[in-house]
Specification:
heterotrimer, A alpha/beta (237), B alpha+beta (440), C alpha+beta (401), A: 237 residues, alpha/beta, 4-stranded antiparallel β-sheet, 37% helix, C: alpha+beta, 2 domains, 8-stranded mixed β-sheet, binds adenosine-5'-diphosphate, binds magnesium ion
């Protein structure tokens, strides 16, 4: 599904240069469920952004679905995001002015689907996350867990091949976090590749494979992991 | 508390200087434009002699053509003519009902002086009877108006303005000295102080906002010399006009006539007198129209002659709509500005400030901004009026700020800013404190 | 494209959009009406006077010496003027068109029939008049030197040997040919129409029909008279001071009236109109700027407020074009709402101005043009902030908490 080789990413500000990723290589197969862990500032989000074509990178090559994406225009990248990738953010990022249904339909709009098709797909996605009854609610009228489920429905509505989730449970309590993860597992079970960044070892353990990022590199060494099984699962992939 | 509000306002202004300056600018532009428009209107509409404008009356007798209107412009097509015939004006001077009265017209002559450094030049002249000076409270620096005898016999005497006195006589008391007007020696009877009523209500024939004449001579002295009429002359009756005498005896109207009537009793008496005079003339075969004599106060006269132009009213209307747009802009800017300070307002609320305290705090700030905007707007208006004076000679006496417009500008800006700030202040005051505190 | 969501967004944050919509509405009302008044006033000022406006000037003399030789000095003045290099022609006049003061006269088409009376401006001109004013004679002839009589506004003897009418007045008085017809006065004088000129405006901008003028061979009998001076093309500014000097030096016992160009005199007469045009123009420009800035302000505020939202949209696959179009569409909706109110306001304002003041009814096309102009203004104003929005990176969605 996705293959990164020797990716480097440098952030330059006036004062400092940060090597957010260096010599970052990773392969994710179609249908995988990968949990990305690592300390704060290690480069997880950067990896996810590059994987999702939100950001460009400096060195290395990146093939998504067999296609080299390094030379693509902004417009082409937008299209790929829209058609192949679904994002789930830590802070949900629902558009506050739009109600639930409109939020879910949003990626379909950018795909220029007609109204009927949009409605049908949004309805299906909302049903999947169990919020079919809340279509006319505004984000501010929902709980955090509900908001994140809407965000998941939005990510699913376009029937993407790859779901990228950046700490999707970071703003949720543990019960809601588990619900969200149930949902992601279900999606993965239907064949969608899922890459999820998380801090929570309980959650990462449920992934097929764990990738640990440290200082901008993929490493198998997980010094903070209190559960040795996690390491085994990561190494086993 | 107010001092505290003021101090907080100043801190707040300093915290968002760009927004504050933009708000002041929005108000200033609005005030600048509306005060510019309003000043012109105000100057056109102003009472040139407020202390007795309701006691001074323009006299109109309807001696005009029975078959055609006197004037077709304006709102009243067939009222009496603006001016009197010479014979009627002379007849009315016989009445002793008015406290004062004056028949007059504008003429021109070349003035020569003994002063060799002053070249002969053409000057406008007011040819009038002496009532003019007392009636219009024309101030004298030296000497006085000529005596009643000069009105009768047309003695060559002259009252001169301060400007001419400065030029010819270096500002000295020149009474008793002479100037040459149209090749005749005129003795200076008096010298005026600066006197310049705007609009020049007593004669609206030429430029309404011109300065008064600098030379005044007895009407008789001018007509004896057949000095031309520099104003409107309107004739309707087929008459043979060969000599100036014929003209003076004709039905042509051209003499301006004013009367001072201090109370309603004298007004009624004078009207009765005028009607009696016209009846008498009708019996003699004149005044073919139905009786229609008018006494118009200064204010009514200015209104009748439409001194305030429609255009100036249009400008005021549009300028005020412009002000409204500026204020809408200011409201938007204030919302943005206050949104930024909402958290600190929330802290104040949490510390026990009431909603009213918060609203008052913001209104203090808005009021201060309004006054700043008013001052800046006044400067803009002054600039605008200055550029109008530069561009249009005739507006030299119109496009001028006076004290009342200055106060109007500041007051208007203050009120406008308060009006614009009311909603933004209320919105911040209404906000639930917790929401902002949490988001900090 | 996203009309529904744009409207919903506006209804959630309605104060800012409402303020701008109202601004757009009032701006439209003021702009269209101000432009209309400006246009009306300019039309009045742009009316041709029929004389060679660009090259015509006026001076004159005011005599004061008792023994001043009026006729002789004027003849000598004119001879000197007409021989002066740069002067095309010079002659005496009582007034010039569009300058605010002059004479009017009542003519009768039929003798002793007051009901056939016609009002017109009356110009006193001499034998040089045709060349001096630069009139176009379409029929008949101009006046000869021996026809010029002395005229005093307060009475004179005799009457004119002929009269020249403008085409407009001739058509009004004598629809089937004016030349040779008699013109009568109420005081039983008469004169034949000896010529017809194409065009000559009256002296007063707002009194009488603009082109109802008549010309008679006459010359003021003192003490003051005007000389119209027509310069060779383009030489007026140079010639006028020379003329003043020439006249001043030529004789004593009189003063020379300061020369003015015809254009200056007309401009002065139109002070009100010109001042109105200038003020309204400034108001309009400021208003358009202000409303443009208001739109920029609201849009910038929105872009800043929606940074994360825009990043999210980009993450979900919106292209830069989509974002740009979103803001343009949002502005179009906003402006359209403003213009909806604006149309009503514009008409109401015009109705008020037409009802109260001397302003005409607004033609519908002006409304359309005003709407298009403001729509364009809105799109132009929002372009800057919208482009800023397109530059918001999609990564904002993951980076901002
Ligand atoms: N836009 C940016 N500009 C500069 N530095 C950045 C930027 N984004 C991230 N970084 C830096 O890059 C490094 C990796 O960040 P990130 O990928 O967000 O870490 P993680 O998600 O693992 O916490 C950090 O040191 C962070 O400070
Ligand atoms: Mg992160």
């Amino acid at each position: 599904m996705l293959e990164m080789q020797h990716i480097g990413k440098v952030y330059r500000t006036e004062l400092v240069e940060t090597h957010a990723l260096r010599d970052f290589s990773l392969r994710v197969n179609e249908g995988d469920f990968v949990a990305v862990t690592g300390p704060s500032g290690s480069g997880k989000t950067t990896f996810l952004n590059i994987a999702g074509l939100l950001e460009t990178f400096g060195d290395g090559t990146y093939r998504l679905d067999g296609e080299d994406v390094s030379g693509l225009s902004d417009k082409q990248r937008s299209r790929i995001r829209n058609q192949k990738i679904g994002f789930i953010f830590q802070s949900f990022n629902l558009i506050p002015d739009l109600d639930v249904a409109d939020n879910v339909e949003l990626p379909l709009r950018y795909r220029r689907l007609d109204r009927g098709e949009r409605k049908a797909r949004a309805e299906r996605a909302l049903e999947l996350v169990g919020l079919a009854s809340r279509t006319r609610h505004l984000p501010s009228q929902l709980s955090g867990g509900q908001q994140q489920r809407v965000a998941i429905a939005r990510a699913l509505a376009g029937e993407p091949r790859l779901i990228l989730a950046d700490e999707p449970t970071g703003n949720l309590d543990s019960l809601m976090a588990r619900q969200v993860l149930d949902l992601l597992e279900e999606i993965n079970a239907r064949g969608t590749t899922v890459i999820m960044v998380t801090h929570d070892p309980d959650l990462s353990r449920r992934a097929h494979r764990n990738v640990h990022v440290l200082d901008g590199r993929v490493t198998d060494f997980k010094p903070y992991d209190p559960v040795p099984g996690g390491l085994a699962a990561g190494a086993g992939a | 508390m107010f001092a505290h509000h003021l101090r907080t306002a100043w801190t707040s202004v300093r915290r968002s200087p760009v927004l504050s300056i933009l708000i002041v600018a929005a108000i200033a532009v609005g005030i600048g434009v509306s005060i510019t428009g309003l000043t012109i209107y105000h100057m056109l509409a102003r009472d040139p002699i407020p202390q007795k404008s309701d006691q001074l009356f323009r006299v109109q007798l309807d001696s005009w053509d029975p078959d055609s209107p006197f004037f077709e412009g304006g709102d009243e097509p067939s009222g009496p003519p603006f001016w009197l015939t010479y014979q009627d004006a002379m007849a009315l001077l016989e009445s002793d009902i008015p406290k004062a009265h004056a028949a007059n017209y504008r003429s021109a002559a070349v003035l020569e002086s003994d002063n060799p450094s002053v070249a002969p030049d053409v000057y406008g002249i007011r040819a009038t009877t002496r009532g003019f000076f007392s009636m219009f409270e024309v101030p004298f620096r030296y000497g006085a108006a000529w005596d009643a005898a000069a009105d009768q016999d047309g003695a060559p005497v002259v009252v001169i303005g301060e400007k001419i006195n400065d030029e010819l006589f270096g500002g000295e008391d020149s009474t008793g000295r002479t100037v040459r007007l149209g090749d005749d020696e005129f003795r200076v009877a008096g010298v005026l102080e600066h006197w310049s009523p705007h609009p020049r209500f007593y004669d609206l024939n030429m430029t309404t906002f011109g300065d008064p004449e600098q030379l005044f001579v007895p009407m008789r002295a001018a007509t004896d010399r057949e000095w031309a009429i520099n104003g409107n002359t309107s004739c309707w009756k087929p008459e043979s006009l060969v000599t100036f005498r014929d003209f003076l005896g004709s039905e042509c109207v051209w003499v301006l006539f004013w009367a001072e009537l201090p109370d309603s009793a004298s007004r009624e008496a004078y009207m009765t007198y005028l009607n009696g005079y016209v009846d008498q003339q009708k019996a003699a075969g004149r005044f073919p129209r139905p009786m229609d004599n008018r006494l118009r106060s200064v204010e009514e006269w200015l209104e009748h002659r439409q001194v305030v132009s429609d255009d100036s009213r249009v400008v005021v209307a549009l300028a005020f709509l412009f002000l409204i747009v500026c204020l809408l802009n200011a409201v938007g800017l204030m919302l943005a500005k206050f949104a930024g300070t909402a958290p600190s307002a929330a802290i104040r609320r949490a510390l026990g400030a009431s909603r009213g305290d918060i609203v008052r705090q913001y209104l203090t700030e808005v009021g201060a901004i309004g006054i700043a905007g008013g001052l800046a707007g006044l400067a803009l208006a002054a600039t605008g009026l200055w550029s109008l004076r530069q561009g249009f000679e005739d507006l030299a006496n119109v496009a001028r700020l006076d004290l009342s417009m200055g106060f109007t500008a500041i007051g208007l800006a203050f009120l406008a800013a308060l009006a614009a700030g009311l909603y933004p202040a209320w919105r911040v005051g209404r906000a639930v404190p917790v929401r902002f505190l949490k988001s900090q | 494209m996203e009309l529904g969501s744009i409207l919903k967004g506006m209804s959630r944050n309605w104060v800012g959009p409402l303020l701008v919509a109202l601004q757009v509405a009032i701006t439209m009302a003021v702009m269209v009406n101000a432009l209309f008044v400006i246009q009306e006033r300019r039309e009045v000022m742009a009316r041709p006077t029929g004389v060679d406006e660009a090259n015509l000037g006026r001076t004159g003399i005011f005599a004061y010496a008792d023994d001043f030789d009026w006729t002789g000095e004027i003849r000598a003045d004119l001879e000197a003027l007409n021989n002066h290099p740069g002067v095309h022609a010079a002659g005496t006049v009582n007034s010039l068109p569009g300058t605010g003061s002059g004479w009017s006269s009542t003519w009768l088409v039929e003798e002793n029939k007051p009901e056939t009376s016609v009002q017109s401006a009356m110009y006193l001109v001499d034998e040089h008049g045709l060349e001096t004013l630069g009139l176009e004679l379409v029929e008949g002839r101009w006046f000869r030197e021996d026809e010029i009589i002395d005229v005093d506004p307060t009475g004179f003897e005799g009457f004119f040997s002929g009269i020249v009418l403008t085409e407009s007045l001739a058509n009004k008085m004598f629809p089937d040919g004016a030349l040779g017809r008699m013109v009568y006065t109420e005081s039983e004088d008469q004169a034949p129409v000896v010529g017809v000129v194409r065009q000559l405006a009256v002296p007063w901008p707002s009194y009488l029909e603009w082109e109802d003028s008549s010309l008679v061979p006459g010359r003021l009998s003192g003490p003051a008279i005007f000389y119209a001076v027509r310069a060779e093309p383009g030489r007026l500014e140079q010639v006028l001071p020379e003329v003043e000097e020439l006249l001043t030096g030529r004789a004593s016992g009189r003063t020379v009236l300061p020369p003015e160009t015809h254009r200056e005199m007309v401009a002065e007469e139109f002070t009100d109109e010109r001042a109105t045009v200038r003020i309204l123009f400034v108001i309009m420009v400021l208003l358009v700027l202000l409303t443009g800035l208001g739109i920029v302000g609201l849009a910038s505020f929105n872009v800043r407020r929606r940074t994360r939202q825009i990043g999210t949209r980009r993450a979900l696959g919106a292209t830069r074009g989509d974002i740009l179009r979103y803001f343009l569409a949002e502005n179009a909706v906003l402006t359209a709402m403003g213009l909806g109110i604006g149309v009503v306001l514009t008409y109401a304002l015009n109705y008020f101005l037409a009802d109260q003041f001397n302003v005409a009814r607004l033609p519908g096309s002006w409304l359309l043009i005003g709407m298009l102009a403001l729509l364009a203004l809105g799109q132009l104003a929002v372009l800057g902030p919208a482009r800023t929005a397109t530059r918001i990176p999609p990564a904002v969605a993951t980076r901002t908490v």
